[in-house]
Structures are given as C-alpha cells and as structure tokens.
Design a protein that fits this description.
By secondary structure, this protein is α/β, with parallel strands linked by helices. It has helices at about 45-50, 70-80, 95, 100-105, 120-125, 130-140, 165-170, 195-205, 275, 280-285, and strands at about 15-20, 60-65, 85-90, 110, 145-155, 175-180, 210, 235, 240-245, 310-315, 330. Helices cover about 25% and strands about 15% of the residues. It is globular, with a radius of gyration of 19 Å.
Length: about 325
C-alpha cells in the first residue's frame, strides 16, 4: 500500500514513523534502509499523511538524516501546528545542523550510538569524530529540555557492551533505547539465542525499565502488553509505501492497520504470558519467514529454561513517543 495514493483513512492510528528521506551522511552496515531507492518526502506528501491519519497524536522522523530533506523545516512546522508531538532519530547530524527554533519543537530525540566507546562507535560507522558529534547533539538538546535517548541496536557484535552506556546515561540524565536487530540486508549481525538472553540478563543487572514493548520480554517484565506493536502504529517510507515495522517489506495489506489483532498461534496457547507476548515480535517472525512459528527467542519453543531474572521497573517513569511506537525497550 502507498499512502500517497491511498483513498482510505485510518482513524485508529495515533502514532507513526515517517522517513522524510533515506539520504544519509553515513552508510552503516546494519541499517535497514541501505538498499532503498533514494527519495525525499515533500510538503505535499506530508499534508497527504495528515489527511490519511486524522487522529494522529505523535510522529517520529527517521530512516535517513531528516535535515537532508530541503523541506524539513516546513514539514516540522506543519505537524507542529497541528498539535502533533514530534520526535526525531539522528546520528547527530540533523540535531546539530537544524535551527534552534526548529529543534525546540521536538519533544523527544533519539541519538544513534552503537558502542559506548568512542573509537569503537566511530570505527563501526566508518567516520572519525562521530561519537563526539553525538555527545554534542546530546548537550545541545539538553539546553532545550528535550527528552533524550541514546538509540542502539542489539547485535551480535555489540551485545556485551550495553552496561558501558550507564556512565553516559548518568552523566547526562538521559535514557537508552534498544531495538533488536532484524535481518533485512544481512543476517551477520543477528544475535544468537544465548547472546540475546545473556544481553537481557546483563541489562537487568545494570538498568531499570522506563518502558518495554518487546513482546518476548513479557517473560521477564511486567511492562509488556498486547504483543507486537505492528498495526498499532505504522512506518511510512520516503516513497510513501507503508509497513507495520521498518524492518518489514511494505507489501502488507491495509487490514493490519485497522486494529486487527494478531492471532494466537497454536503453540502459544498454553503459555503463561501468551496474552502479553502473543507469539513475540511479529516483524521478526516475518523477516525470518517464520510467520506461523513463535518468536525465535522463545525459550519454550527452543526447549530451554525460562530465564529466572526480572527486569526492574523505574519508579516515576513516564512514557515517551517511542514507548508504544514499535518493539523496543527504554532503559535508565
């Protein structure tokens, strides 16, 4: 489905992700948008989005570096004037380049950092000084009292490093948001079953949970509700194509965007957390071509012991735009 040509409206959708462009100053190996056809959203496209989603309450701009869209400021103003809460995900470039008055219109920002060690982050993204640019972006956003999260992808090559982010979080009083890598262009960075659960155990020892919507973590968190966020929110790619998740191909029919609940798999019906997990991350199951099987990190499905640890909830935590936006966890 393409939102730019759609005649339908989706009043149940209240939060979306919009790729204003897939242009970027980097070409990271794990990025889901590396092989997308290059295109940039227009102001007219943005107006169309607002008409298709009449109940919209929040939106995140991501995919590429939004500042590389030459109508970025106009699009931000359009959404802002409609009273829509705004977030942006950036490697630092957009946050350091945009005008002060534009930056002040954002409620949340996510700054992508893959390793808590400057040299490792810079080497991974093949750009010297990138870690320092990310720190500069954090400091700039702090001046505007914007909610800040470091956004990181849990991969096979960084899964043992997350505790190192704690010092940065404490220094700046910010959050850490973790997405689980899904195989779009390569499966080289997919964590193994043991790597995943070891990383989550390490997280339980070093962080508290602000919010958690990664379905399989219903086994160790009381914060998870209702399974995947696929269909509760949607992703709009720069060409206008729509998907339930940034990792999923955009050839899914519109029925998933009208509140259709994912069906409970036969295997999962006796699971004690089935109503919370609902088979795990739907996007992961689709990218792994396992749509009729439970989440690949399910211990019951893998005939492994259920983890004994629990993720601790942070007291007085408040929801951020990304809290119910996709399968993710936000930590402090």
């Amino acid at each position: 489905m393409n939102i730019l040509t759609s005649e339908e409206k989706f009043p149940l959708i209240k939060t979306i992700g919009v790729g204003l462009t897939n242009k970027c100053n980097l070409n990271c190996a794990h990025c889901y948008s590396r092989k997308m056809i290059e295109r940039t959203f227009t102001l007219q496209d943005a107006e169309k989005v607002l008409s298709v989603f009449p109940s919209l309450e929040s939106a995140n701009f991501g995919t590429g570096e939004s500042i590389l869209n030459n109508q970025f400021e106009e699009i931000v103003n359009l959404f802002y004037e409609k009273g829509i809460k705004l977030a942006v995900t950036s490697n630092g470039l957009s946050l350091n380049k945009m005008k002060e008055e534009t930056l002040a219109k954002f409620e949340d920002v996510d700054i992508s950092i893959d390793f808590p060690i400057a040299q490792m982050h810079d080497k991974w993204r093949s750009k010297k000084g990138l870690f320092d640019e990310a720190m500069k972006a954090i400091e700039r956003c702090k001046k505007h009292n914007i909610n800040i999260s470091i956004a990181s992808v849990l991969m096979s090559n960084n899964c043992t490093y997350f505790s190192g982010f704690k010092k940065i979080l404490d220094k700046y009083d910010i959050n850490l948001r973790i997405n689980l890598y899904k195989s779009v262009n390569t499966d080289k960075f997919v964590p193994t079953y043991d790597q995943f659960w070891k990383a989550i155990e390490n997280i339980s020892e070093n962080f508290e949970v602000v919010s958690c919507s990664e379905p399989i973590l219903a086994l160790v968190s009381d914060d998870v509700k209702g399974g995947s966020k696929c269909g509760d929110s949607v992703r709009i790619h720069p060409d206008g194509s729509v998907a339930s998740c940034v990792y999923v191909k955009s050839d899914i029919g519109p029925e998933i965007f009208n509140g259709k609940k994912k069906e409970i798999l036969d295997f999962c019906k006796s699971c004690p957390v089935v109503e919370k997990c609902v088979g795990g991350c739907y996007g992961r199951r689709l990218t792994e071509e396992r749509g009729e099987s439970p989440d690949s990190y399910c211990p019951y499905y893998n005939k492994r012991d259920v983890p004994k640890f629990k993720l601790k909830k942070k007291k007085e935590a408040h929801d951020l735009i990304h809290s119910s936006y996709l399968c993710t966890m936000i930590l402090r």
